[in-house]
Amino acid sequence: IKKAAMEIRAIAEECSINSEWVENSELAEIIGLSKRQLQGYRERGVLGFSTIGRKIYYRRAEVEKLIKINTIKGK
User: N or C, which terminus of the chain has less Cβ within 10 Å?
Assistant: First the structure.
């Protein structure tokens, strides 16, 4: 039972991380940008990020905020 509980906790923690963070290639696919365009945003400081090893992650809330700020409203 203890082993199962530990596995469940590990899965729950992983899911909460995945819901808060999005990986570089996943974000590129979701919003239709190239990885190079995302790199440009990182280099210019437009979009904050974190790295773990060679993987790049973005906070979903920050990405949503950037999209909202740059939304052009129709007439």
Answer: C
